[in-house]
Design brief:
heterotrimer, A alpha/beta, B mainly alpha, C alpha+beta, B: mainly alpha, 13 helices, C: Cytochrome-c3 Hydrogenase, chain B, three-stranded antiparallel sheet, 15 helices, globular
Chain lengths: ~160, ~300, ~400
Amino acid sequence: MSETESALAHAKQLLAQWAAETREPETNRLDVILTRENLRAAVQTLTDARWGYLAALTGLDLFNPLPKKGEPLNDAFEILYHFCAGAAVLTLRVTIPRADAFVPTVCDMIPAASPFERELIEMFGVQVSGTPDASRLYLPEDWEAGVYPLRKDFVLTESER
Amino acid sequence: MNALLALLLFPGGLFVMLNGLAYEWVDRKLVARMQNRLGPRWFQPLADVAKLLGKEEIVPRGADARWFNGLPIVALAAVLTAALYVPLLGILPSVGFAGDLIVTIYLLSVLTLCLALAGSLTSDRFGLLGATRTLTQLFSYEAPFLLALLGPAVVAGSWQIGTILNYASGQWLIVTQPIGFFIAVIGLMGKLELPPFDAPEAHTEIVAGALTEYSGRGLALFRLAKNVALVVGLTLIAGFYLGGIANAFEFVGKTLALLGVIVVLQVLFARLRIDQLVGMWWRVGALLALAQWLLLIGWKLWSAN
Amino acid sequence: MHNTQAEKFIVPMGPQHPALKEPGHFEFTLDGETVTHAGVRLGYVHRGIEKATEARTWVQNLYLLERICGICSHTHATAFVLGVEKLAGITAPPRAQAIRALIGEMERIHSHLLWLGVAAHEAGFDTLFMFSWRDRETIMDLLEEITGNRVNYSANVLGGVKYDVQEKHADALRRALDFLETRTEHYLEVVKNDEMFLRRTRGVGVMSRELAEAWGVVGPTARASGVARDVRVDAPYAGYVDFPARLILQTEGDLEARFSVRIQELFESYRLIRALLDHLPTGELVKTVPRRIKAGETVSRIEAPRGELFYFIKSNGGDKPERVHIRTPSICNMSSVLSLAVGHPLADVPMLLAGIDPCFSCNDRMVLLKQTARNGAHADEWTWEQLHQHGIEYYRKQKR
């Protein structure tokens, strides 16, 4: 078993008790689907075991503004916590409804997550409860409150593209 | 009428300023060549000053316009007065009096004080920090610099520049007082805030230090004042330590050689932090200068007996 | 200025400041000369690139993403093409992969030399600055010769590379490397032995391994603190699979270590380029990539000159990406500077900042300029005349 595979197997075993589902989309990747309630516990397990480091925090807007027949509107966000260890990439995935868009902070366990969480807040309007600094990181001070540019319903006009 | 000419054209006034601009050019050009750059053309310092004089003078809000405009004039006037007492071009000053060395040194300090005042009056954060650093640096190099220039005065037995020059001609005091020479050169660099002693105007930290808010005329005058101070300082050190005045040509050569030394020092080193700088002056500079001074006095007393 | 209530003396650095070559805003609270608090505000070069990718095709995005950063444009393009190729199930030909690594290393050389100059300049050591930038021109000229551009080389296309490295390039490159190697040896000596310079670097801004890991520091900054992390080594990509890179590691964690790690990485780059040139695989340069990319998600990681560059790419099976998320190395390193600055004299701050080699353009990547409609013109497009007129009117108003 290669180093990457054993690292992923270790992660899988560590997170088994919290995971709702696991997937292996690529040979070096492991996706672990979590509920919001289990997120902090899962991150704590990883940091306790010193498994890799938090490489990035990706927000995804699953919203489908123009659903075709049979397609759901999918009114939700998915927040991806990417952890890397060598070549292995472990992604914790949490899906949250748009109406109740918040995730708990992980900054107390991983201080480096602060700028990632700030970015998430201003770009997606996802609240991060308990984050030490929720102020704007990238957007200008006079940016309209409640407008979140990376949401799918924020559509660029022709000249802004 | 002659006195007026002497004040306005030669040796005071216009001539010293042009001399200062020429030395600034030599300094910039040599530094540039040593850093593998092309460097400015010969008229660049003059062009800079002309351009600055023509620019709009912006008095920052909160600064007293009278002080803001007056300080550069005082600074330039002080160094121009100092220039009257030094042997520019190897010509002995006509207006010397007993104790003019002390007056000259303190007229040079007026420039630094004006800089610091200007910085603190503009109520700009960078200006204020720059002013603090300027004063800190002044307090650290001033005493050793003074001691270093008093070394030749002690052996010559006079506080008058002319007398010291007469004593110094024919003998190179740099041989007998190397420490004094070295400290005088470094002190001059500190006074002019040249690298590596440019912490007071370290532009990657505090933009332009005390002069941050200055534009146009004030900046031009301060720069002119610094150039004149450079000429005065070089003339004094070359006269005292490098064999006095032989003839004008040789003397100018000596001051230029000294400028070359300063250029090399500028190019060689990274900037010192202000705390490191103060430490260096008081722990090394002042002690060495004092030690040499005591030695000189001892020798003087011993040889008098 | 005098905030008498709080008794705080705050020194702003930026958005325009001589220590910053790009806009960012830092605020340092001072007690005398000592920094007691530090804060940062980014976003001055935020261009909304992440959002813009969603409105562009895969091919268009390649050129857009390359413009995130002028210094490490190639790494952004490489991370993107590798990710897209992975999604499409295509592997670029070996020669293309090797050339990607080759250009990547050339870029690292020019970036590290640029950094060396900037860092020396922050220390008031302009001589080193001038010389390192002069030497940097050698590699810039070669980049121009191979790709036609000094920056934004556009060497990558989806499925391969655009430019071949010919024998004449290889010869010129080898000669340049010989020259650069002697120069770099000299710089390493200066950085390690110059007493005055060491006063500004040795023992300054020490970051322990634990701190570096807690702050999530990446790249040479992390490797100077003993964190053994280099994507080229941990997860080889492109040409690095066949031409493995060596890890440069130091444990002191101070500014001197950051200088020396980067300079030693230059030697490693020279070695890699020589190896690549000597054993450049033969064959085609490009494979065809379909216009529509299969649905899926992928993660693409690259070792940029400043550290790990992280791309997350999601496709819906269309001709445009559903989402491209970019995490640049500078944002990881930024918070470490703020924490490090506290307790240091203000004079060390520019050095500390330079120590992580920050790249604000990378940081800020993603916006939209929104302006209210003025002069009856279109809301966010001003012609030159309008700008000119606006300038005149603005200053007229100020004078009154």
